[in-house]
Amino acid sequence: MYKISILGTDYIIMQDANTTQELITRDLDGETNLYSKIIYIKDVSNMLDKDSPVYEQEARYKEVMRHEIIHAFLFEAGLSDYCMDEVLVDWIAKQWNKINKTFKEVLELK
């Protein structure tokens, strides 16, 4: 368990054995409770199938973490209508690395 700040609001990230088992039971990789300010995420070794390579499990873990954090950012920004839009949140999570790379390239130009 650890805390992160989302636009000045503390969120707890839970990823212990109980959390992992509860998410597996509910067929989820992660979940954000916007009112209790808790992000639940499965342990990286439980992402995808047990036969999946570690690098794929790690990639999925990072994608899920971005996805859940984006829910929280949209909610804390007052964009309640968008924070529950799974298509939008998933798109941002999957495209974030490309978006971030473009910003870095542009901002590093002299």
Note down, in words, how this protein is organized.
The protein is of the alpha+beta class. It is 53% helix and 17% strand. The chain contains 4 helices and 4 strands, in the order E-E-H-E-E-H-H-H. It has helices at residues 17-25, 54-76, 80-83, 86-107, and strands at 2-6, 9-14, 30-33, 38-41. A 4-stranded mixed β-sheet has the order 1-2-4-3, sandwiched between helices. Helix 2 (54-76) crosses helix 4. The radius of gyration is 15 Å and the shape is globular. The protein starts with a strand and ends with a helix.
Question: What topology does this entry show?
Answer:
Blueprint: E1 2-6, E2 9-14, H1 17-25, E3 30-33, E4 38-41, H2 54-76, H3 80-83, H4 86-107
